[in-house]
Amino acid sequence: MRRELESGASEAGFTLVEGQRTPLAAASFQAIPLEATVSRGGPEVAPVAPGVEPALVKPELLAGAGLTEAEGLYRMRSYTQVPVSLSLIPRLSTNVPRPPGGWVENQLAFGVVNGGRAVRVRGAALSLVANWYEEEAHGLLMSSGFNVVKKEASGLMASPAANIVLGEVEALQLAVGANVAGRDVWVGQAAAGANVAAGSVWGVQLAAGGNVTGGSFSGIQGAAGLNVARGDFAGLQGAAGGNVTGGSVRGVQWAAGFNRAGDVMGVQAALLNVGGDVTGAQLGLVNVARVVTGVQLGLVNVSEEVKGVPLGLLSFEKKGQFHVELYGSDIQLTNLAVKFGGKYVYTALLGGIGPDDRLERFSLGLGLGVHVPLGERMWLDGDVAGSTVLRVRDPFAGGSNVLGQGRLMLGVQLFQRFAFFGGPTYNVYLAGSERDRYALTTLPSREEWLSETTTVRYWPGVQLGIRM
Length: 468
Known about the structure:
Layout: E1 2-5, E2 8-11, E3 30-32, E4 52-54, H1 59-64, H2 69-73, E5 78-89, E6 92-93, E7 103-116, E8 119-133, E9 137-143, E10 146-149, E11 153-159, E12 162-165, E13 169-175, E14 178-181, E15 185-191, E16 194-197, E17 201-207, E18 210-213, E19 217-223, E20 226-229, E21 233-239, E22 242-245, E23 249-255, E24 258-260, E25 264-274, E26 278-288, E27 291-303, E28 305-306, E29 309-317, E30 321-329, E31 334-341, E32 345-353, E33 361-373, E34 378-391, E35 401-415, E36 418-431, E37 446-449, E38 455-467
Parallel strand pairs: 5-7, 7-8, 8-9, 8-10, 9-11, 10-12, 11-13, 12-14, 13-15, 14-16, 15-17, 16-18, 17-19, 18-20, 19-21, 20-22, 21-23, 22-24, 23-25, 24-25, 25-26, 26-27, 27-28, 27-29
Antiparallel strand pairs: 1-2, 2-3, 4-5, 5-6, 30-31, 30-38, 31-32, 32-33, 33-34, 34-35, 35-36, 36-38, 37-38
């Protein structure tokens, strides 16, 4: 058995006998030299000279170079430890007197331009112009210009211009200009300009301009401009402009402008929301989806099917309802209603005029109701509606009145597109001036004065009609 600690390695040998306990004490271990191993499951390599650390080589990189793991053992890079580096440029630095063809690792680097072709840092690199590493960089990279790492980076990268990493990033990138990652990002990116990650992101992207992720995203994307995630998204997308997700969304999309996603499990909130199958809610001026399991709340709702509640001025559902009704009531003899919406919740646009008042007045209104099937040929509709009564000759004269109604309608479906219905209503009419005190009904009603100019009249009524 082998035991490895930071102080060294040791081994112990023992024999297991069936049915007996074999004690293993600390004194059983004998110290042995440490052996460096290839990173992520690679084979063991022979010990190297003191002060020289073997490079950690991924097996997939060896395969990409056409080498077997055994061949790669002889061609691995060894890094000479130079704890502190001072440089004007990479070729004029304390890293230059290294073994020919060797590589250098720094713990601290100070200079105008730090880094170089065969240099990596594990600590901190501070520069006036740039930190430029073709090898790995781990720790703190700060520059008044920009930071560039061509392989993996971890820690904190900060610069006013840009942070660019062509490999994976396990770090927080902070820039006034832009942050760019060639592969996946863990932790996050924050910039006044833009953040770009070619791979997936686990963490945070915050930008005044925009955020772009080539893969999936888990965390928070926030931008004053635009957020784009080409893969699936889990978390919060928030933008003043818009959010675009190529895959599915699990969480919240919020924008002042628009949201676009595949399937959504959560909430979309914006002026314009477009999604595939939505489980949750769409809240906006215009909502568009395929199948909604939940709520659509907006001025205009469009869907193939809603398994929930569509609430809006105009709700269009492919598998929902659309009906035109002609009916008469105690208020006006001739009325037209257009009902559309889901299977159980509908919106009604109302209009009416009556020869009984010599065609002097007409009404326009809006209603919201519930449709309840009662078997194959009967149904029950109940809704609340609000209307205003206008003069035909001067409809924009500034009338101040509101007609509120609660309506209950029992219908009998005689044919597929023809039904007869009727039922009671309860009406409340509020008139804000003497000019609006119309005698709307021929049925008994009660009127009360709320002020010197405002009256309210209420009464039960009735309506009968046909549906097509």
